[in-house]
Specification:
Blueprint lengths: L10 E7 L7 H24 L4 H23 L3 E7 L2 E7 L5 E7 L3 E5 L9 E5 L2 E5 L5 H24 L1
Keywords: Membrane, Transmembrane, Transmembrane helix
InterPro entries: DUF2244_TM (IPR019253), UCP032162_TM (IPR016990)
Protein name: DUF2244 domain-containing protein
């Protein structure tokens, strides 16, 4: 879990972005049990016909499926945290391997950019000057659009606070 610095400022936006997880650990166990049972029973059928080497290939298939799921679950540990206050836009990104990157830019000069027209490869960026940070690569296009709108609204409200004060 990310810990953001405590602030006495009003927080206009605070979001933790994580990839969608379509299969729980329990679901994974059920799928692998089915794959293992089907591989074993099919392997036994081939063994009864005298095709002994086929058993190993069914075992390799089950092992390849297991590794593919584990790799996918590892990628799903990625997280991005975004917080917008009147003074700054704070971003923290944790990769699947646990390394973290933190960035803070002044809210008055931050921009939210979304590539138009919207396509699956359209990137959502928080920009400051000539530097941009891509966020939410794992989000769907409508999710990126919704996030961009929410962040733009939060930045607008944060800037209004600065002008009123």
């Amino acid at each position: 879990m990310f810990l953001m610095p405590d602030t006495d400022e009003i927080i206009y936006f605070d979001a933790l972005l994580t990839p969608n997880r379509s299969l729980s650990e329990r679901g994974f166990a059920i799928v692998m049990a089915i794959v293992g049972a089907v591989s074993f029973l099919t392997g036994m059928a081939f063994l009864s016909m005298g095709a002994i080497p086929v058993i190993g290939f069914f075992g390799l298939d089950a092992l390849a499926i297991w590794f593919a799921f584990r790799w996918s679950f590892r990628k799903q540990r990625e997280e991005t945290r975004i917080r917008i206050t009147a003074s700054s836009v704070d971003m923290m990104h944790r990769k699947a391997n646990g390394t973290e990157k933190r960035v803070s830019v002044p809210a008055g000069f931050a921009r939210v950019e979304l590539d138009e027209p919207l396509r699956p490869d359209s990137s959502l960026r928080i920009e400051h000057g000539r530097t941009g940070w891509v966020i939410g690569r794992f989000l769907t296009v409508p999710e990126r659009k919704s996030l961009a709108d929410a962040m733009r609204t939060a930045l607008h409200r944060a800037r209004l606070e600065r002008h009123i004060a």
